[in-house]
Write a structure and sequence with these properties.
This protein has about 130 residues and is α+β, with helices and mostly antiparallel strands. The protein has five helices and six strands; from the N terminus they run E-H-H-E-H-E-E-H-H-E-E. The strands form two sheets. It has a four-stranded antiparallel β-sheet with strand order 3-4-2-5. Helix 3 runs antiparallel to helix 5. The longest helix has 16 residues. It is globular, with a radius of gyration of 17 Å.
């Protein structure tokens, strides 16, 4: 992970940490899921998402999760979920829960128009903080 905090890191780029050195099998991961969903389906979907997120909150390795809503109804991705997990293995075990899987399928099937999730697990490669 490359980190930069204030101007000290900008002045000393050799001190920045390499992304390949920080990412390992036991490092934390970020799960990001962006949703294509009709604007009139958002409130109901968010309510159901929060119920599913509460299931995940109690799983081993869960750190945090936030759902972001687009300010414009013209945005392609109306919702963006960002969750952090202690490891890839913890995330995989949590998402393998049959109850979570059935609730996720039901949430997609309950909408009048299709909901298209675009999930992925990511490693941080650059991190900036305020000076």
């Amino acid at each position: 992970m490359t980190t930069e905090s204030g101007s000290a890191a900008a002045e000393a780029p050799a001190a920045l940490e390499s992304s390949s050195a920080a990412a390992g099998p036991e490092s934390s991961v970020t799960f990001i899921n962006v949703f294509e969903i009709a604007a009139d389906e958002l409130d109901a979907f968010i309510e159901k998402w929060e119920q599913r997120a509460r299931l995940m909150r109690d799983k081993p390795g869960f750190i945090d999760s936030r759902m972001h809503r687009a300010r414009s109804t013209d945005s392609r991705f109306q919702l963006v979920n960002v969750s952090h997990w202690e490891s890839q293995e913890a995330w995989e075990a949590a998402t393998a829960d049959p109850d979570f899987g059935s609730r996720t399928r039901a949430a997609r099937e309950e909408t009048r128009q299709p909901v298209t999730p675009n999930p992925g697990v990511y490693d941080v490669v650059v991190e900036l903080t305020a000076p």
